Amino acid sequence: VQLVESGGGLVQPGGSLRLSCAASGFTFSSYAMSWYRQAPGKERDLVARITSAGGTTNYADSVKGRFTISRDNAKNTVYLQMNSLKPEDTAVYYCNVRPWGMSYWGKGTLVTVSS
Question: 107 exposed, middle or buried (CB, 10 Å; 0-12, 13-18, 19+)?
Fold first, then answer.
């Protein structure tokens, strides 16, 4: 299993970013996908989750109404559209999948929200 995140960077408060996670090594369309984030000195927390066909999404309360998770099963890619970014959104963002009862992570992409 390989998960490769991209799209992070430095953005001003109120700005937007779109993260991507390219997946391989498993049947992408069969599994739910998740985005997590870890801020400096804090635990890794769930940000958003999407079911295998994309019909159901769930979000952390802190990002509801600002972030949108989506997926393209033809491209084996999951996305996280982040709008109205706040300094407290600064973190390394990770893609996650749990096929076969095991948890796999990408290396993460850093998002920094600062003026």
Answer: exposed
CB 48 within 8 A of CB 80: yes
Site of tokens 């996670």: 21
Tens of pLDDT along 96-111?
999 888 999 999 999 9
The first and second tokens of residue 9, run together, are 């960077």
Whose tokens are 């309360």? That residue is 61
Q: How far is CA 112 from the centre of its chain?
A: 15
Confidence (pLDDT) at 100: 83
What is the residue whose two structure tokens read 């079911």? 51
- Encoding tokens for residue 67? 């972030």
Q: What does the DSSP 8-state code read for residue 89?
A: G
Q: Which two tokens stand for residue 22?
A: 């390219």
